[in-house]
Amino acid sequence: MTVLPVEERSLDPIPTINHFDSTVDEKGLCLAQTLLPHDKVFGLGQTLGSLNKRGKLYRLYATDDPVHTPDKECLYGSHPFLIIVGANTFGLFLDYPGEIIIDIGFTDLDLLQIRINNCDIDIYVFECKRILDIVREYLTVTGSPYVPPKWAFGYQQSRWSYPDESTILEIGKTFRQKGFPCDAIYMDIDYMDAYKVFTISEQRFKNFEGFVDLMKREGFRLVPIIDPAVKVEEGYNVYDDGVKKGFFCKSARDGLFFAAVWPGFAHLPDFHNNDVRKWWGSLHKRLLEAGIEGFWNDMNEPSIFYTPEAVSGFYDIVEQMRHRGFDREKIDFKSNRSEFFEDIVQTGDDGISVPHNRIHNLYGFGMAQATVEGFNQYRPGQRYLLLTRSSCTGVHRIAGIWTGDNMSWWEHLLSHIRMLMSLSMTGFFYSGADLGGFGCDTHAELMIRWMQLGVFSPLCRNHSAMGTRFQEPWAFGDKPFDIMREAMRLRYALLPYTYSEYMRCVRELEPFISPLIFHFDTVDVEDQFMYGGSIMAAPVCQSNAKGRYVNLPSVRWLLWRFRRFDERDVAVYEPGVYYISAELDEMLIFIKENTLVSMTQPVDFIGHRTCKSLTVIGFVTDKATFTYYEDDGETFKYKDGSFSTLSITIEKEDDDYSIMLAKDEHADVPIEINELIFEIYDAQGHSICRRIVE
Amino acid sequence: MTVLPVEERSLDPIPTINHFDSTVDEKGLCLAQTLLPHDKVFGLGQTLGSLNKRGKLYRLYATDDPVHTPDKECLYGSHPFLIIVGANTFGLFLDYPGEIIIDIGFTDLDLLQIRINNCDIDIYVFECKRILDIVREYLTVTGSPYVPPKWAFGYQQSRWSYPDESTILEIGKTFRQKGFPCDAIYMDIDYMDAYKVFTISEQRFKNFEGFVDLMKREGFRLVPIIDPAVKVEEGYNVYDDGVKKGFFCKSARDGLFFAAVWPGFAHLPDFHNNDVRKWWGSLHKRLLEAGIEGFWNDMNEPSIFYTPEAVSGFYDIVEQMRHRGFDREKIDFKSNRSEFFEDIVQTGDDGISVPHNRIHNLYGFGMAQATVEGFNQYRPGQRYLLLTRSSCTGVHRIAGIWTGDNMSWWEHLLSHIRMLMSLSMTGFFYSGADLGGFGCDTHAELMIRWMQLGVFSPLCRNHSAMGTRFQEPWAFGDKPFDIMREAMRLRYALLPYTYSEYMRCVRELEPFISPLIFHFDTVDVEDQFMYGGSIMAAPVCQSNAKGRYVNLPSVRWLLWRFRRFDERDVAVYEPGVYYISAELDEMLIFIKENTLVSMTQPVDFIGHRTCKSLTVIGFVTDKATFTYYEDDGETFKYKDGSFSTLSITIEKEDDDYSIMLAKDEHADVPIEINELIFEIYDAQGHSICRRIVE
After folding, report:
1. Which residues 227-266 of B are in CB contact (within 8 Å) with A?
2. Alpha-carbon distance A71 to nearest alpha carbon in chain B (angstroms)
3. Is the overall model pTM greater than 0.90, yes or no?
């Protein structure tokens, strides 16, 4: 690893950065590298386009754009970590909180160009031969990934909006009545009083505290949305308090910055300042004391609908048009215009003013940090669920993200797959896209296929926009419902595997979701991924497909054509390329040769210590080991070693197998498994079963 | 074939339509059919979504929407022909010129529902077992496909805009200097004087007639755009004349319908009336007499930007907002609002008024018919190039279409492939999408892959929007240029095959571009297609892909991995599924077992009788026949039998082949081939060469 801090104003001499031609002009820094035709570029976290990021220009500038068409240059965050794989394999991390332009063979087919309008930037070049080592070095520098509470690995249901107690209660009841597992229900902006952050509509929630408690007893966590913009309204305590304390962002011209978002005109908290973050954290008191354990931070790019100046400018244009003639182009009024952000000034802990754009990509980070202040204050030591829409590198240590306002498009199901990989390699292990699609109307087939992908999405949340078709699992009739329920039962059945592997990846700084090329010498495969170390998912991502192409690299693979979690339809595949059928009620799950997968009985929601019986499915032609992991599932004590493991090793011995178990138990979290069932498959797909009872 | 005319107002009894449950209510007709899980539905011409049309709702109502995201329900035309393939295979054609809603498993997974708000509709059910027979029956009913002049099979270059003589001249010169074949250059709206249709800017074209002649001598046809809307401007002869003759559409309220498009406020010609069509045709006089041989009819859905009422409504809203507060949702001003169309009234030849919406989808057809009136008057007997953006079934007899304002998205390259198939099966043999993408910036790799697809797109036109990156073949540097030039030389080299097969398909009423499932018992393949009867194209349609999955059904296939038209890198593949590498400069072309392909030397532009030497590539394991076709390439005499054929049959005989030639020559169009070169490959990929000189 080479760390090359480039000091501000050190324009001369031009810094030397391994692998790059660097130039500095009055505008800032420009890096360029020629790419060979077969060089691949991975990384960039939450960005559109292919997994191999070549052939597109990326503008890393957090932006709320609700239409993710392929031409869009920016989304909600900035994750400036690149892995170049080819003749020279290396990693590159640009530690800079403002806008970064990364042009990977878009303007010039074989040229990677990076432009930053500033020289105050730290550049890290990771010189490792193995891709996984590059990721590990990057995570060593930027920090260990976020771990949510165990229940956050359950299915989560959202909608803009379930606006009141009775709606949420009804949704919850339906899940339980229909036996569809679910752990959380989200509350979108309508739970508030007039979109005033930290208020709860008393009309729609007569007894919020009691309601949170009631839902929790049924196994549902409620996850309220929190937006940063504070409504300008005298008498509203958050507004009054923020103004009095000087905690809102300033305008570059005069006074406070003033812009409209959901609540109408509002101020933006200045999260760049530690006092503001502590204050913001403290505002979560009522929600946290009511028993809320998770939030989603939205609109924190920040998103701005309009400013008073933009409105009066619009009126002027219309007035001119009345005389000069109508021009439909001129009235195309856009949110999040660059001039809005140019007007914002923030203030650091040192009291020094900073133009917002200089640190634009930190805004969501600051809001997440502020939220964590609240958790630490009111739920010290407890893990929390925190999702943030806007993020930058570093946020991956304290929060997960959902990928924003996607659409009910097949293209966005594929995008979900690619982003899961890109996000995981940039440290965002806990992330996911809105299953079924947020915008537009979804339909049964898309919903089913997306739910099947959701089984392998660390954040597994079904969310949809106001005005679109309802997309709760039962909204499409009995047959689709049954298929989705079986898929989601699989997710819950796989929890012992998922949680163990997630925590192993966190400890070992290895991406939890990863592309095949990180493990095998293979051609470009962008629609299959490793889920932990044993399972490869190959979701069907095309309309009307009754199967798909699958690329099986390097080793043998055991296909589990999934229909029900307690049924096995398995077959062994040699390395190669196949078209494998997968009816609408079938998923293609591949277990890598010489690995194990652990399962248990699915439940309605994730209890803390549910696992008494473990089923181990092994594909063993030689020897395989899996480390089952347990901790309390709800605190950070795992960081201090308060976790237990059960190492399971299976070795093939002529016509039989030897099974070795090794427990490493922490007193606080004893492993309570009293039954181990083994299903072991050999190279021919023949299986033996074993049962070990304690 | 069953023809079931349903008379208007014949609400009782409910008509019986084979395969469907039909109901009639006060709103019109509703058809429903349950689909089995493996039933497939093809057809619908120019629509978005997959080739198998299940899983989407289609609204057949011609609409100018420039953003073709997957959720959009309508595009520019209406092609209500469906092929249901499954337990019951049959075809369905709905002969109705107004809005048709076709919901194929979108609302309900297994239900096909059709809704037409009228009962005055002819419904055709084609009961054939073979898919190709269904298409043939449909084309027997609706008419034989359009045949453009031979030069229209060449490469065509467009841009919004090449606005003047010097720009066009420069473009033309560059093609010839760089040896990139090209037959036509398009003129977009800026050639006119203030967007006034049938004017030519005298400032930008000092001597239009001389310029057309000059370009033609260099082998370039100029293709001007024609829009329907006639600018309201006294003294402008088209306006004055149209008003005087009462040739414009009326308003349902009072007077003429009045709306703004490119020229500002304008009237729409009433193409429903034969006198108007004749008049409109006559307006092409100057252009046709100057030597123009082709037009593209744009904006003929018709597209409407706004009306005076919409503008004053907008001002009212803004005025209210000044007092009640700004609302960004309310100022979202949309083109082509439904109320615009509800106000239009047209008048038939019989003088009877018809609400426009009743015949909405005929507007583009009427304009195309009007244009053909012009061709017939000023170039009688001559073939013409005519593209229309809006179309309905029937237009396929007299014009080709381009698929409208696509984007520089990989998704739209795939969409191009699917639409080529859907359009061809609905009779639109001559069609194509804007290569490289119209909207957004394209880039080298996408442009190359799209140009490689363009080789097999009957209409092969590179077109892009104002404000986007230039995308002439030389705009991306030398390496991309060389690759694209080789691809386009292949197109020209293949002309003897393309033209022969196109004309065979027209004679035999067989789709020129077709899905594999029309010929083979195969799984769903939506990104490969038959181009005529011998060639299967498998374009690379993914970013950064250095190869692709290929499904090779039923027979052996000879892969020609194309780099240069005069090089052969071939291999024989047995039926199966493969991942086959294809570098950026390579195309995958498959020749079907026991078929032949004919080629010649590529030229800079298509002369009428260029073919003196023919190279026949054969993949012959048993026996193969190809019918080479020639006609004058420029008139309709081929319809009267004025064409010649050379039937070439190759039969395998032990270790050798016998070659049989049979000429069927028409005196007017003698076949002048004096050299025949044969390259014949056997099942092992071994080849022999033969040369026959006359």
Report:
1. 260, 264
2. 7
3. yes
Q: Which of A443, A542, A552, A578 to mutate to test the interface with B (most CBs of B within 10 A)?
A: A443
Determine phi and psi for A439, rounding to 5 degrees.
Answer: -85, 165
Q: How confident is the model at residue B8 (pLDDT cuts 50, 70, 90)?
A: very low
Domain ranges in chain B are 2-142, 174-380, 478-694
> Per the CB < 8 Å rule, is A109 touching B328?
no
A37 contacts B109? CB cut-off 8 A:
no
Note whether A328 contacts B: Cβ–Cβ < 8 A: yes
What pLDDT, in 10s, does the model give residues A54-83? Answer: 999 999 999 999 999 999 999 999 999 999
- Best B72, B322, B328 member to test A by mutation, with max A CBs in 10 Å, is B328
Q: Is A59 on the interface with B (CB under 8 A)?
A: no
Distance between CA atoms of residues A302 and A229, nearest Å: 8
* Per-residue model confidence as pLDDT tens digits over B565-585: 889 999 999 999 999 999 999
B478-694 maps to which CATH number? Answer: 2.60.40.4040
- The alpha helices in A218-352, defined as continuous H runs, are 237-245, 274-282, 285-289, 308-324, 338-342
The CA distance from B305 to the nearest CA of chain A, in Å, is 8
Q: What is the pLDDT of residue A13?
A: 58
Helix %, strand %, coil % for chain A, to 5? Answer: 25, 30, 45
Using the Cβ of B314 and the Cβ atoms of chain A, whether some distance falls under 8 Å is answered with: yes
Please give, rounded to a whole number of angstroms, the shortest distance from the CA of B576 to a CA of chain A: 9
* Chain A residues with beta carbon closer than 8 angstroms to that of B85: none
Would you tell me which residues 641-680 of chain B have a C-beta closer than 8 angstroms to some C-beta of chain A?
A: none
Q: Tell me which residues of A are annotated as active site.
A: 298, 301, 405
Share of chain B above pLDDT 90, in %: 94
CATH of domain B2-142: 2.60.40.1760
Distance of CA A139 to the CA centre of its chain: 16
> A644: pLDDT confidence band, cut at 50, 70 and 90?
very high
Contacts 24+ apart (CB under 8 A), B317-320: B318/A315, B318/A318
The fourth-level CATH superfamily of domain A150-402 is Glycosidases (3.20.20.80)
Minimal Cα distance from B54: which residue of A? Answer: A544
Strands (E) in A501-546, as ranges, are: 513-514, 529-531, 535-537
Please tell me the distance from the alpha carbon of residue B519 to that of residue A623, in angstroms, as a whole number: 48
Question: Which pLDDT belongs to residue A6?
Answer: 42
Q: Is it true that A2-141 and A150-402 share their CATH fold?
A: no
Does the beta carbon of A108 lie under 8 angstroms from any beta carbon of chain B? yes
Contact at CB, A315 and B322, closer than 8 angstroms: yes
Q: Averaged over B550-560, what is the pLDDT? A: 97
- Cross-chain CB nearest to B54 (options A69, A479, A544): A544
Find the residue in A nearest to B481 (Cα): A109
Q: Which architecture, in CATH terms, is A2-141?
A: Sandwich (2.60)
Among the listed ranges B214-218, B519-523, B594-598, which one has the minimum average pLDDT value? B519-523
- ∠ at Cα A598 (A524, A463), nearest 5°? 65
- The stretches of B43-179 forming alpha helices (DSSP H) are 131-142, 165-178
- Count other C-beta atoms under 10 Å from residue B493's C-beta: 22
Alpha helices in A385-469 (DSSP H): 410-425, 444-454
Specify the pLDDT at position A26. Answer: 84
According to CATH, the topology of domain B174-380 is TIM Barrel (3.20.20)
* Location of structure tokens 């109408």: A264
